[in-house]
Design a protein that fits this description.
This protein is an alpha/beta fold. It has helices at 3-9, 12-23, 44-54, 70-77, 89-99, 104-115, 117-120, 148-159, 167-185, 194-225, 230-233, 249-252, 286-291, 299-302, 309-327, 345-358; strands at residues 61-63, 82-86, 236-239, 259-262, 269-270, 276-278, 282-284, 335-340, 361-363, 378-381, 388-389, 399-407. The strands form three sheets. Strands 1, 2, 3, 4, 8, 9, 10 and 12 form an eight-stranded mixed sheet that branches. Strand 6 (276-278) and strand 7 form a beta hairpin. It is globular.
């Protein structure tokens, strides 16, 4: 076992907390995580336990597949500086909304904005957005007879955000609408009434500003308690492909991460990172317009490959390229922890480990007394998750595995 991993595992209590967290089905409810539930997200309890096990306050934590920002949220709460990146601009938007340490004036401004929304979202008002048709419509498939009232309310509310003075306040307000839109439109057969949507906007606003207030106090307090400036703990998050992350100036200016903690896309599994499914069927890019983000790619781009045989082959090639790039910013003390799922576990796990080995990484297996699985890996069942594989008619096992790696000695 690598020195960093071996040293960490001598802390039996912390190691057991990680094992317990992996096996837990505790819902996402702490800190700012509920701001927006990103698809295939990491478990906050797993992230928290891994950070406590492998790092100390002040150590850098990195997540090159940042998704909904779970790693960054937990790292800041534990007084660890962190760096996240993602190819999806929406992921970076959500991560920044969750991890910013909002001031009192910013939170008060968002609450005031919410109070003034009812007359500004009167459906008799005209839209400022120029109507577009076809594939260029940002609310494609979301303007049906059943849903147009909800989408127009969201549009009118989003147009009023420009009145907020600060970028962080605008981002938090957009995140409120993003969460509301997902609640109202994504995978729902019965579209809620406009009055219910307005009430939900208010409820989300009050909840999120309260969570943001408590989270900022927690991060500042823990930073000072460990002798650090709170400004040094605020996570950095950039839009970048992992294969080019070493070329980023932000990455070059920070020390080697002590922990890389991430959940890469799953091979052969269809996860909609970039669309909502209106009434459970038709896909809409409305979430990007609400968040003020750009989206010009299909699902294979965000998933690092499609569900065809060629797409899966491409996936493992991209995994190798991604971690070859990461190897250049790590050192011998760095630990890589990944949570991932496979549509064909035996075959895909083997190919994944081969890609990691080719990229310069060695897998580390946990001591057998820590876990009960025969292969000495941590496996977990994921509740309430729907994944789609490329194998029609096959019932997919919704299991994830936690993998531990370090740089190979030859690297």
């Amino acid at each position: 076992m690598g020195e960093a991993l071996a040293e960490a595992m001598t802390n039996a209590e912390a190691a057991q907390r990680l094992v317990n967290a992996v096996l837990s089905d505790r819902p996402v409810e702490s800190h700012t995580h509920p701001f927006y539930l990103y698809p295939a997200r990491l478990s906050p309890s797993v992230v928290e336990s891994a950070i406590e096990l492998f790092t100390s306050p002040g150590d850098l934590v990195m997540d090159p597949f940042v998704g909904g920002g779970t790693t960054l949220v937990e790292a800041a709460a534990l007084a660890r500086p962190s760096l996240g990146s993602d190819i999806n601009e929406l992921a970076v938007f959500v991560s920044k909304a969750k991890t910013h340490l909002y001031t009192r004036s910013e939170l008060a401004a968002v609450e005031t904005w919410c109070e003034k929304l009812p007359p500004r979202t009167n459906l008799r008002l005209g839209r400022a957005r120029t109507n577009t048709k076809g594939d260029n419509d940002p609310f494609l498939n979301a303007g049906t007879r059943e849903t147009w009232r909800v989408t127009k309310l969201l549009e009118l509310a989003a147009e009023s955000i420009a009145e907020l003075d600060s970028v962080p306040a605008q981002r938090l307000a957009r995140c409120v609408l993003l969460r509301t839109g997902r609640w109202a439109l994504d995978c729902r057969l019965n579209v809620p009434a406009v009055g219910d949507v307005r009430r939900r906007v208010r409820e989300f606003t009050l909840e999120m500003t309260a969570r943001a207030r408590d989270y900022a106090a927690l991060v500042r307090g823990n930073a000072r308690a460990t002798g650090q400036k709170p400004s040094k703990i605020i996570p950095k998050c950039i839009v970048a492909d992992v294969s080019a992350v070493r070329e980023s100036r932000v990455v070059r200016r920070v020390p080697a991460p002590r922990l890389v903690l991430c959940s890469p896309p799953y091979p052969g599994t269809h996860v909609l990172y970039h669309r909502w499914q209106v009434r459970g069927r038709r896909e809409t890019p409305a979430l990007y317009w609400i968040a003020g983000c750009k989206d010009s790619h299909g699902p294979a781009y965000y998933g690092m490959g499609g569900r065809t045989k060629k797409g899966i082959d491409d996936y493992f090639g991209r995994v190798r390229g991604a971690f070859e790039s990461l190897a250049n910013v790590l050192d011998c003390e760095s630990v890589v922890v990944q949570v991932i799922s496979f549509s064909k576990p035996e075959e895909h796990l083997r190919r994944y480990l081969e890609a990691m080995l080719d990229a310069g990484f060695e897998e580390e297996l946990l001591p057998s007394p820590s876990i009960s699985t025969p292969d000495r890996r941590l496996w977990r069942d994921v509740p309430n998750r729907r994944w789609y594989t490329y194998r029609p008619g096959v019932v997919q096992s919704k299991r994830e595995v936690v993998l531990f790696h370090k740089l190979a000695s030859s690297a």
